[in-house]
Amino acid sequence: MQVYVTYKEILEFVKEKYNKDLLIKRVDDKQLCITYQKELFIGSIKADALLAVNKVSSQSIEMSYSFPNAILGNVFDLAIKFIQDKLPENQIEIDKDNKTIKVHLNQIEKLEKVLTYIEPTDMSFTENSIVLDVHINQ
């Protein structure tokens, strides 16, 4: 079975929750480019981040990240130092050395019951959505 979440839904959620406008573009079936653009009085700045699916299991999703602009990568690494202890405990693990983000699905309370019925097996990207392949548990 496949579960789809459209980029439009994600962008609307981010806009409503954080008041930030992002762009999401599929690079290939395992990689996305997420762009944040900010208008300033001197012009606009644009920040791109690449996210790639590394591994999907019944318990977690691991992605790697990179920044085409090395300065942004350094800024992101500094930002992680400030937000690391604000992340929900045991739910999201960021490894700056390997540039990976691991989401521990089994540690997210709202997913506990869902994960008794389904088991994620893969994740990919289409032109318009994120696709999560899941196995239905018997």
Structural account:
The structure is a single chain. The relative contact order is 0.20. The strands form 2 sheets. The chain has a 6-stranded antiparallel β-sheet. The protein has a 3-stranded antiparallel β-sheet with strand order 1-9-8. It is α+β, with helices and mostly antiparallel strands. The protein has helices spanning 7-18, 70-83, 114-117, and strands at 2-6, 22-28, 31-40, 43-56, 60-66, 92-95, 100-104, 118-125, 129-136. The protein is globular, with a radius of gyration of 16 Å. Strand 4 and strand 5 form a beta hairpin. The longest helix has 14 residues, at 70-83.
How would you characterize the largest beta sheet? 6 strands, antiparallel
Structural class category: alpha+beta
Characterize the quaternary organization of these chains.
single chain
Number of strands: 9
* Side-by-side strand order of the widest sheet: 2-3-4-5-7-6
- General form: globular
Task: Please trace the helix and strand order, writing H or E for each element.
Answer: EHEEEEHEEHEE
Radius of gyration: 16 Å
Distance between the termini: 13 Å
